[in-house]
Amino acid sequence: MFQIKRICCIGAGYVGGPTCSVIAHMCPEITVTVVDVNESRIKAWNSDTLPIYEPGLKEVVESCRGTNLFFSTDIDSAIREADLVFISVLSNPEFLAEGTAVRDLKDPDRVLIGGDETAEGQKAIRALCAVYEHWVPKARIITTNTWSSELSKLAANAFLAQRISSINSISALCEATGADVEEVAKAIGMDQRIGSKFLKASVGFGGSCFQKDVLNLVYLCEALNLPEVASYWQQVIDMNEYQRRRFACRIIDCLFNTVTGKKIALLGFSFKKDTGDTRESSSIYISKYLMDEGAKLFIYDPKVLKEQIIHDLSQPSISEDNPERVSELVTVTSDPYEACQSAHALVICTEWDMFKELDYEKIYKKMLKPAFIFDGRRVLDHLHPHLQSIGFQIETIGKKVIATRIPYTPAAVCPRINATEPPTKKAKV
Asked: Considering the entire predicted model, what is its pTM?
């Protein structure tokens, strides 16, 4: 059987970098070269500061970089010398979760390899199987035709996204009835037919895969004249967008129907904890909705660079073709306490563990009163009695923490976000 000795991976991003680093780590006799046209990214992979944050990744890279793992911009040479090129030879979809990517690669639920049902295609499949068999049991390696492999990837992410949108829809119902979505999720998750995974209500899913893959599924269905199926999966995306708008609307409602000129501390900008990835992060859209109403945002994230935050918020679809407003309304801080200084509200958008350990008495003393906490990730549930005793007004996803809010008299004309559509741009005076 043909044996693979040299692998080339085109693309040194969130998938190619970690995947091929683990392959090199687990297969010391195979030379792995990761190539990319982005010189700065390749330089970062060859430095002490990797271009992405992933627990355990630095140790894996440093264990084999320069021995059988290389990062290069010389794409042509790497392709010529390779026995296998990751991108064009086979369908080998990844099922990685950012924040646990190294663990997922070392101990995967399954490895899926698809290829042509030809002699050459089957030969390629067997060769790639041999690579994974260095550390993955044969029973976990699934081989299929190309279409089955690609659709399995789309369907897997669509099903996970669907579960998140489903529990988020229930969170809205819980807030209206007095139920607690965490209790509901526990009750239904104990049903073995359903299971407990991906039943965590939040401000919505993000990341590069879920929305992209669901929309790919929608496109395929429309192209193949399956409009009912396309409409079904489109609702997963629509519910996710609704949850984000609904959360932003709740912030504005609680802050007496206006956030114009008010300082709001936004804690967490990555789409989930243990990663610096901001792609499709709910924080971006919540920031947009609050900026649309004139709020002054002070943003803190332990892993996301200031330049990335400003870049994300300056995109035309987010800045309403007015990137100057980002410099006027957004301040990125390196200290969560600084972000909360003189703020009207604290908004948690990412479930970083460190947010559970902050000194909230210190934060409360420095905030304007009444001081609000909007917990979009349910990370402070265990602290609610303590936070209320300090003096905080608590609002969270899928639960009424207090029966009544602080009374107020609405202004004659109040800007309001419509929870069913994105807020409109405020007119300049």
From this structure: 0.86
